[in-house]
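Justification of computing resources. Each target in the renewal requires a structure prediction run like the one illustrated here; the chain below, 171 residues long, is used simply to show the kind of job we budget for.
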Amino acid sequence: MATSSPLIAEDACKYLIVYPFLPLTISKSCSLLLYVISIVIWITQQWKYITIPSSSLVTYSPIFDLISIAILLVTLWFTLQKFFWRKLEMGLNMFGLLLCVFTTFLLLINHPSSFSMYDNVLYNHLLISISWTFNVIWSTFHTEDTVSKLLIPGWGEATEEHEIEALEMHF
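Resulting structure tokens:
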């Protein structure tokens, strides 16, 4: 006799590879990898060279990268939880794009000619900017609002029937 078991992590992760979300998942995963590489470059260069020839704003670039990583992880978590609102996704992607463009602009302004660390980080940020732009465009034109009640424990227990019907019709 088979019993219904709760949704396991393997089934939940399958949602990341469903069509409208698969390109976003790939793009965000690549961006995450590039951000991690940029931060590793910053950390290794900080230890090699005690004084980096840059303005004080460029030293905040890793902090902007960490904020962008947090935004990426939040959007991936929403996708994993099957909680996808187009406006929220577009807003987070726009904020990530603005942070990346701002960091790229800082790196371009304060680019020393002899310091190759900036070249590596700048190249990463240019690729990440392309990825954020793709995320904004894809989430605008190819996705729809989706909220699943599968991963929300106790969904609809303390609400009235007409409220649940209104929520289900909205999504």
